[in-house]
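User: Let's play a game. I give you a shape written as tokens, and you guess the letters that built it. Ready? Here's round one.
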């Protein structure tokens, strides 16, 4: 029998191209769920680029005229699949504190959940797929689908950027909250700290920030074009719950407001943060995450209040140590943080706020310990001979040089133990070797950027109509990349 593969396709579109490239070298039956806006939908409803046996447009099945939720159904769903639904929704960026346009009621949220869960159950019952292909879940709805498939023992193939090489990817069955199991050589690798650092630096891991900023700067040139298209386009607020409350006037006024606030926030940050590291100070390093990202909202749902995390670390440090808190350079893409947040950080007597322009290499060289919620900084620090602590389980938290906070009461003790620990470089090299072995050359960020440039005004306006000509041209110009990606998926499917 043919394999049945269910694709989750959102505004990134790359899974759409992937499905056709898998078809070229593997005989299978494909299905797709589209999470897209109305204008791109016009193309995908009638597309002939690739052959799906059946498609579903996610938002077509979610009614705005929400009915009273069936609590009994949701309770049974939680028990049947061992999925805590509140854990998916409380941090959801569409529902709560990050939504600047609409205040959802509890009944509205539960009604949306009910419709989502019933839709996903019905699709899986009908298709009975062998595989689900999707990216790392970003929202509550794709995360619920992922967890539902896991519960039903459907193989989930997630494309993830390598933690140690941004130009490479891995295809794994678990998300970032699962530790990566790797073979340990139990051999003494004759490798020095300097050679490990050199090897790691050659990966050009920090170029991600530069590329992100370059892309952001390019987008500035497209704002007027995106604005004019937006004003001439019918709003999605009647058909997509993620757009509730987004009238054109409110979106424009909010955009102007945030643009103005961003200037004041950046000015405050420039004036009140440290630009140069004092290498004579003993300090622990905490890198701030962007507030709206997978690492916190899904990867670490109980530690989303970063100000509280900073307070907990600051009061757990031994006397004589400072806490360096560094803003992320990519936070500017979301208009920086509230000035009140920066003032709160500065209010702690043993905490210093570090400017986003400071080279992370300099920080790693001079710090004594890195503490992060779940970010790559905790892995990067090991290559500099510095131990780390994380607040949540990650793909690399199984390394012995990384300690995980299971109980806040134990945080002072964990910090003391980590400050007095040494790095197991043999284990680190085993991890590095294994990740390199199972990863392959594929620059996911470049593909995302190219898709944004081609189909959505550099990512500024995604609700644009799509032509067959553009799809064909994009596919042809990226044939080599998608061929590589498809072959890697086929290997996984066959295994």
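Assistant: Ready! My guess for every position:
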């Amino acid at each position: 029998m043919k394999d049945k593969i269910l694709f989750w396709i959102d505004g990134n579109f790359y899974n759409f191209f992937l499905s056709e490239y898998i078809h070229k070298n593997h005989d299978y039956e494909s299905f797709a769920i589209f999470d897209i806006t109305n204008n791109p939908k016009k193309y995908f409803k009638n597309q002939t680029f690739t052959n799906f046996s059946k498609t579903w447009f996610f938002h077509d099945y979610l009614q705005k005229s929400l009915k009273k939720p069936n609590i009994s159904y949701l309770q049974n769903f939680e028990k049947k699949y061992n999925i805590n639904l509140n854990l998916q929704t409380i941090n959801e960026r569409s529902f709560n504190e990050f939504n600047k346009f609409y205040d959802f009621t509890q009944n509205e949220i539960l009604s949306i959940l009910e419709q989502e869960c019933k839709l996903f159950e019905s699709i899986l019952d009908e298709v009975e797929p062998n595989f689900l292909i999707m990216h790392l879940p970003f929202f509550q709805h794709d995360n619920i689908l992922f967890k539902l498939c896991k519960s039903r023992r459907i193989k989930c193939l997630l494309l993830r950027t390598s933690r140690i090489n941004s130009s490479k990817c891995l295809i794994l069955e678990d998300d970032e909250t699962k530790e990566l199991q790797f073979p340990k050589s139990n051999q003494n690798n004759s490798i020095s700290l300097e050679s490990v650092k050199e090897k790691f630096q050659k990966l050009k891991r920090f170029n991600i920030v530069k590329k992100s900023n370059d892309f952001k700067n390019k987008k500035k040139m497209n704002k007027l074009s995106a604005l004019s298209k937006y004003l001439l386009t019918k709003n999605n607020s009647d058909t997509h719950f993620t757009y509730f409350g987004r009238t054109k006037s409110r979106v424009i006024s909010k955009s102007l407001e945030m643009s103005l606030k961003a200037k004041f926030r950046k000015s405050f940050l420039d004036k009140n943060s440290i630009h140069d590291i004092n290498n004579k100070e003993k300090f622990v390093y905490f890198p701030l995450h962007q507030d709206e990202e997978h690492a916190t909202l899904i990867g670490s749902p109980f530690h989303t209040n970063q100000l509280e995390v900073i307070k907990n670390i600051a009061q757990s440090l031994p006397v004589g140590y400072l806490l360096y808190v560094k803003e992320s350079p990519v936070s500017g893409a979301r208009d920086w943080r509230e000035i009140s947040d920066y003032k709160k950080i500065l209010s702690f007597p043993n905490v210093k706020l570090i400017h986003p322009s400071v080279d992370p290499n300099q920080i790693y060289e001079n710090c004594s310990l890195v503490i992060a919620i779940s970010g790559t900084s905790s892995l990067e620090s090991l290559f500099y001979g510095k131990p780390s602590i994380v607040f949540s389980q990650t793909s690399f938290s199984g390394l012995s040089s990384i300690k995980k906070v299971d109980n806040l009461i134990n945080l002072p003790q964990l910090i003391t133990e980590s400050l007095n620990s040494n790095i197991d470089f043999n284990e680190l090299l085993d991890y590095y070797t294994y990740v390199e072995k199972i990863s392959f050359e594929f620059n996911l960020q470049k593909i995302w950027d190219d898709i944004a440039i081609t189909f959505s005004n550099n990512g500024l306006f995604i609700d644009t109509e799509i032509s067959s000509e553009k799809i064909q041209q994009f596919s042809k110009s990226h044939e080599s990349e998608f061929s590589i990606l498809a072959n890697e998926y086929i290997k996984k499917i066959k295994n």
